[in-house]
Amino acid sequence: MIQTPYLLFLGDAPDQLAAKVAQGIRDWRPGNCVGQIRMEGCKADVGLPDMTLAEAKAAGAKTLVIGVANRGGVISAAWKKVLVMALEEGFDLASGLHNLLRDEPDLAAVAEATGQALHDVRVPEVEFPIANGVKRSGRRCLAVGTDCSVGKMYTGLAMDAEMKARGLKSNFRPTGQTGILITGNGIPLDAVVADFMAGSVEWLTLDNDEDHWDHIEGQGSLFHVSYSGVTMALIHGGQPDALILSHEPTRAHMRGLPTYDLPSLEALRDTALPLARIANPACEVVGISINTAAMSEDEAMAYLAEVEKRMGLPTVDPFRQGAGRLVDALAAL
Amino acid sequence: MIQTPYLLFLGDAPDQLAAKVAQGIRDWRPGNCVGQIRMEGCKADVGLPDMTLAEAKAAGAKTLVIGVANRGGVISAAWKKVLVMALEEGFDLASGLHNLLRDEPDLAAVAEATGQALHDVRVPEVEFPIANGVKRSGRRCLAVGTDCSVGKMYTGLAMDAEMKARGLKSNFRPTGQTGILITGNGIPLDAVVADFMAGSVEWLTLDNDEDHWDHIEGQGSLFHVSYSGVTMALIHGGQPDALILSHEPTRAHMRGLPTYDLPSLEALRDTALPLARIANPACEVVGISINTAAMSEDEAMAYLAEVEKRMGLPTVDPFRQGAGRLVDALAAL
Question: Which percentage of chain B shows pLDDT scores above 90?
């Protein structure tokens, strides 16, 4: 639906985490990206060539993807100058922001005049049912985090890639804009109306072969007071057979909540597992995924070994090490 | 905004619970109701005189309120005949259903032609913020249930009424259509977009006097897989200082989920309190509210005494006994 290749728009991202949409696309579909475009003050870099609109156009880019998220998801006036120019130079736009491209009169008018498309992947395009809780066939794995933005999507994508490489039946099931932009399908869970959240997750992860695994993209955290309801709907709508605990060990406080400390991995396990067993009594915590991007190799290895010993579960950074041991843990279930 | 008095429409409610909207209005604002109107096959009765549209009109009714909820909230063809006639006879319509009155072309056209108003109280009319988790002044009480429809709204309304009767500072804060229809304000939480659920609850329960209590209307249950995400947003957005456990002891299984058993009150306490303490470390479970409507007086009294002894908390049916002991428990905090 969205034409490739992409030019990734990083805007004036205040830090690297704010550009996680762009980073995810670049890491999982590098062949779909010709470059990045950054504004003055941008603190993010996803490791693609910096290009002007004209350079990207010459390199074949068809769609400018907004790869940066602001708190609240607003399209600023500064961004708009670039977006309008992009439409005028013949790019489509794609975005997962709450603030829809189509709701901006100037963008809508220029898109209309130039014949370019506006793709708002955050908008649900299905009338989801209310969850019915009926047990489904096939198996499902969900990553739950101590915080937001700790590597849950990466974990699911890496486990799916590993299973596919082994010739096993597997799908990654996106629940956010990055995943949807990467795979071309999924549910924009944080934009679904409250009553239908769990039902949308059931809809996404239907009955399947008994030896098939859905890797459901996690969202938020049970411990993040802004988004915990979304996480809960994933746990109950997803009926996971397996949970992966996800953590970023250098975080000083919960993301966006300076007075809230991160929970321990033990607290996450002891909170998430009983809740998951309401929907699937057979659910088990099978492994731990640590985002060690901010650590040296030695620090990371020491930390992973310490956690593995303490928690008694396979503990890896799937970005450094691949997800092989997590897939082994699923196979052992 | 909605003109009173009301005629309460019970439709073809399959059971008494399906008419809980009408029952709530009738119990808490009896002076606003002239009667009820029921279709063939209706299994509910809220104890008001049965009236035709003409009789209700003659008795002064100005608005027909849809007091019945279908699973999924759909307006059936059979209902529509009555609703169209009501508009033609000069009633406004008010509804809290997901299926909006304004989205039905025939209702919209007849309302336009007759000059009558369509009130969809389920539609959020505010752009809610994302929750920021900042500690607020004033105090908040939230009822959490073992299941949906176990008496959480009644508990909040009864505690608010008792505090007002004692001259204490108190507000009932509705989070559902019945509460909004009763009080004229509140948030339709189950219709709020996922990312803004907790923020909408923060918006509803702002800073207040230190001796003021907000009684936040509970929704769903942490143990009900269809709606648990909504409950979680209430617990984290509401920052309750006090939790009331709510239960209906004759329920054979979770409402709408025939293969799911109800949790024990102990399991509810042990699940809800640690989650509430993420947002408010001082939170306490202060009492238990039991809906004994399906029990005899003797059975009810014996059951309440047994639970009170077992749980070590004041245990009442606020509908039979009033909420005095629950308010005492708040005062003792």
Answer: 88
**Residues of A whose CB is below 8 A from B259:** 133-135
B324 shares contact with chain A (CB less than 8 Å): no
pLDDT in tens, B284-327: 999 999 999 999 999 999 999 999 999 999 999 999 999 999 99
Q: Which of A147, A226, A262 to mutate to test the interface with B (most CBs of B within 10 A)?
A: A226
Q: Which of A193, A229, A235 is closest, CB to CB, to B233?
A: A229
Residue type (1 letter), B187: I
Cα–Cα distance measured from residue B268 to residue B146, given in angstroms and rounded to the nearest whole number: 6
Name the phi and psi angles at B63, rounded to 5.
Answer: -130, 135
Asked whether the predicted pLDDT for residue B147 surpasses 90, the reply is: yes
Q: Which strands make up the sheet holding A242-247, listed edge to edge?
A: A169-173, A212-216, A139-145, A242-247, A284-290, A315-316
pLDDT at A72: 64
B281 touches chain A (CB under 8 A): no
DSSP state of B132: -
Q: Do B130 and A237 touch (CB under 8 A)?
A: no
Question: Which residue bears the tokens 């009822």?
Answer: B143
pTM of the model: 0.87
Residue of B129, B133, B259 lying closest to A257 (CB–CB)? B133
Measured distance CA(B39)–CA(A278) in Å, rounded: 38
Q: What would the pLDDT profile of B183-242 be if each residue is shown by its tens digit?
A: 768 899 999 999 999 999 999 999 999 999 999 999 999 999 999 999 999 999 999 999
C-alpha distances in Å from residue B204, one per residue of A157, B28, B148, B182, B187:
38, 21, 21, 16, 7
Nearest to B88 by CA among B104, B61, B107, B101: B107
d(CA B63, CA B101) in angstroms, rounded, equals: 14
Q: Which two three-digit tokens encode residue B88?
A: 């033609």
Determine how many CB atoms are found less than 10 A away from the CB of residue B110. 20
Cα end-to-end span (Å), chain A: 37
Residues 6+ away with beta carbon under 8 Å from A17: A149, A255
The alpha carbon dihedral of A103, A105, A106, A110 has a sign of: positive
Please state, in angstroms and rounded to a whole number, the distance separating the CA atoms of residues B142 and A91: 50
